Amino acid sequence: MQATHQGFRITAIVYPTGADFEVFAGEITEMMSVLGMRLAGLVQHREQKPGRAKCDMSVRDLATGALHRISDDRGLYARGCVLNSERLLNACTAAEAGLSPQADLLVLSKFGKAEVEGGGFRSLMVKALDLSVPVLIGVPAINLVPFRAFAGDLAREIELSELPSDRQVAAEYLRTTCRPVDEAMWARA
Known about the structure:
By secondary structure, the protein is α/β, with parallel strands linked by helices.
């Protein structure tokens, strides 16, 4: 795996299931923080509820550490999506406040249903691009076509399975490849 910078502003980590990327994102952002990276964005956490088909979902704001619940408890037999769009919007608004040109990387947990429909993390991604802050986002394989339509030639795709299993090595690799287009901006890291 070569760590070459090609001027991509968005790095998409493509994965088959959400649980795989969720664990990866939690571990990799922790490692990136240890490496001294200034992170912004939202990483999802699921909390399984015994005896329930659906879990509680929250996102952790990487700039502040605040945890924002983004799901509704729809009861014991809930099926379908439990995402509360208003809570997600509130979390995005809070995370946007922590996004500045001083951030080294905006990390977002996924380009999911909300983003496919035109909402969710899209506004955060646009603001990061306006500020020349590179973006790292998880993309479920099922959402690749709409992600490509949104990101166009600004994005590169990396399969989660292609990243090193050693999280420190993976964090170093992503730190090297997720750079601003303007290399001079990266020199401050």
